[in-house]
Design a protein that fits this description.
By secondary structure, the protein is α/β, with parallel strands linked by helices. 37% of the residues lie in helices and 16% in strands. Helix 3 links the parallel strand 3 and strand 4. Bound molecules: nicotinamide-adenine-dinucleotide. The site of nicotinamide-adenine-dinucleotide has 34 residues, from helix 5 and helix 7.
Length: 315
Amino acid sequence: MDEWKILITDGMEEIGKNILRDVGETHDRTGITADELMTEIGEYHAVIVRSRTKISRQVIQAGKKLKVIGRAGVGVDNIDLEAAQELGITVVNAPTAATIAVAELTMALMMSLARNVAQADESMKAGSWIKKQLTGSELYGKTLGIVGLGRIGSAVAERASAFGMPIVLGYDTAEEKLSALRELGFETVTLEDLYARADYISIHVPLTPVTRGMIDATAIARMKPGVRLVCTARGGIIDEDALLEALDSGHVAGAGLDVFATEPPGPTKLVTHPNVIATPHIGAQTREAQTRASVDIAHEVKSALEGGALRWKVS
Ligand code: NAD
């Protein structure tokens, strides 16, 4: 059997590397630049990335020995899937590793919006003791609308009902997701209905040509005045200019954002808006999720190199 060479470009825990060492040599080149990647990719049979490294058509074409591209996480929008398919390169990911972490961050953002946690902390650090201005509201009794009822959206639905959010409205384009949620007692509705009824709206769709900009000025105008928006999915799904305008007018009372159209966004008007809680794409950044992602992708890439069965073949 060949000794496979495996390139790791965005870090991987030792536990994952140990699994890969069974089948080959791992080279950790965390932080590799785009130019270096173009020169070095030709030596490798597999490459494992997170979201930082862009695996473009040019990179794929330069990867003369490349058999597998592994994404230690769920989103594969940084990989040119069409080029990979054309050149017969398998793409695998680790789609379930971050589900709990992202669902919990979503709840954290919703709670922080409801109780002004970030503003309260900032005021204490500035030496103040203000209480009245920090009067919040309860999640209890509020209606949550979830757009995208996949793994993370469903996990948020379960957690929100434990908080006494009595009506969780779900919208998805896949009928099987809707029926699964209906069986658990959640109400599934049209997008229009969700916009009209929800006090909180949380976005959990992938970024696709259809979802890019789906939360635009028209969609926001259909939402209830005072709605709070949370997005831990992908930058680009919310039209950030439209959101900023709605925050300024007060139509949107608050937004919790983990993802941005450009990352890092810098101190933009949106990020620094007093009613925005911004986090630097930390949805998957828990120790547990990172370990799970390393183990899952290592097994999957190993299996792909050995010609074994694949659990998460993207293309
Ligand atoms: P998933 O594939 O399980 O769920 C996505 C759901 O969206 C599916 O049920 C799909 O049917 C639905 N969908 C697709 N297009 C739609 C549309 N146009 N309208 C309505 N529904 C549509 O994915 P997941 O694991 O739940 O991940 C959800 C999102 O979270 C993805 O965007 C992913 O990139 C993002 N994510 C973010 C982080 C982070 O660090 N913040 C980490 C992991 C995942």
